[in-house]
Design a protein that fits this description.
globular; five-stranded mixed sheet; D-Maltodextrin-Binding Protein, domain 2; 15 helices; TRAP_DctP_sf
Length: 355
């Protein structure tokens, strides 16, 4: 009697998306191998951005990918784009994508702590990594993006990193000590709320659409919204002239996709989209390094911005807070403990010492 070895079950489309970190040149070229469009008709998605339309990322990230997708599919796959707050504000974007009100959106893992135990690692643990490529390696090669998506998929949402970038604080007035820092009211989100609180400040969340007014009227004394590019494009340097270094964190913005909508796409459209997501992640991350450099230069030369370093006693408080947050986040789940082990090993390889 002969026995045939059963063929392994093919991976699910969601698993393939989750594992797309290994997509390389072959995958990016794959759409050309499919030939003409497989399915007739057109697909149009509603896509809610976390960014206001004035933000450089609205066009540079979202608008660019949408136009490339439409071009590569000969107009068969179009996105209707909504600026911050038009369908939902930042923390609500995950929910409207989960329910299918919008088929996709841009967001931040910092808004997803209630649906994923590794959200802080996907966003970026404050005070740990120190460069764009380091955050990219953690997300893509060390598997944090895939771990995040595995948890969001339980809520019907596929998660993908959009780009890596620095998160930096801007202030209305200079500070010279931890005592002065402790008097500040700051806009923050995610793990940075705890990070800045542990360093002595009084942080709270303010929606992007209300941030300029909150700064100009004194509701808060400073904020983080990305770094120099965010401050410049939202005109925040008009009211906050002090740009603080080093970065609070190196973070990742996010794409969120309704899993059912993604699975319902014709195969060729899905492949075009997933290939573009990988392509644009690396292209946009690299591009953003230049944009940050140019924005800081313009701020200093033309807008009266002063770049300052946090006082040493504030940096010492931040280092302690970072270690505490990392240890706390590691306790959230087995997946979080794995994420923490990978991050700690990576920092050890880099020689990063938080004091």
């Amino acid at each position: 009697m002969t026995h045939e070895t059963p063929s392994p079950a093919p991976p699910s489309r969601r698993a393939l998306l989750r594992g797309a970190a290994g997509v390389g040149a072959a995958a990016l070229a794959a759409p050309a191998l499919i030939g003409p469009a497989i399915a007739a008709g057109e697909v149009e998605w509603r896509v809610q951005a976390v960014w206001p339309k004035a933000s450089s990322s609205f066009e540079g990230s979202l608008g660019k990918l949408a136009s490339m997708l439409e071009e590569r599919t000969d107009g068969r796959f179009r996105w209707q784009l909504f600026g911050a707050g038009e369908l939902a504000k930042g923390p609500e974007i995950f929910n409207i994508v989960s329910r299918g009100v919008a088929q996709a959106g841009t967001s931040s893992a910092s808004y997803m702590a209630d649906v994923s135990s590794v959200a802080a690692f996907a966003y970026g643990i404050p005070g740990t990594l120190q460069d764009y490529w380091q955050q990219s390696h953690l997300q893509k090669n060390l598997g944090i993006e895939a771990m995040m998506s595995a948890e969001t998929e339980k809520h019907g949402v596929i998660y993908k990193a959009e780009k890596s970038y620095p998160t930096e604080l801007i202030l209305k007035a200079p500070i010279a000590s931890a005592e002065e820092f402790s008097r500040l009211k700051l806009r923050a989100s995610g793990a940075l709320l705890d990070y800045l609180a542990a360093a002595g400040a009084s942080p709270s969340f303010v929606p992007t659409s209300e941030l300029y007014q909150a700064l100009s009227t004194g509701v808060v004394d400073g904020a983080h919204y990305g770094a120099a590019v965010g401050a410049k494009t939202l005109s925040l340097w008009e009211v906050c002239k002090y740009h603080m270094k080093p970065a609070l964190a190196f973070s990742s913005d996010a794409w969120v996709f309704n899993a059912d909508a993604m699975e319902a796409l014709p195969d060729d459209l899905r492949l075009h989209l997933t290939a573009l997501l990988e392509d644009r992640y690396y292209a946009r991350t690299t591009e953003y390094q230049l944009l940050e450099t140019l924005a800081i230069k313009d701020g200093v030369e033309n807008q009266g911005v002063t770049v300052m370093e946090f006082p040493q006693d504030v940096q010492e408080r931040m280092a302690k807070a970072s270690a505490e947050i990392l240890a706390r986040e590691a306790e959230r789940s087995e997946a979080a403990a794995t994420a923490a082990d990978r991050l700690n090993e990576f920092m050890s390889q880099l020689g990063i010492d938080r004091g």
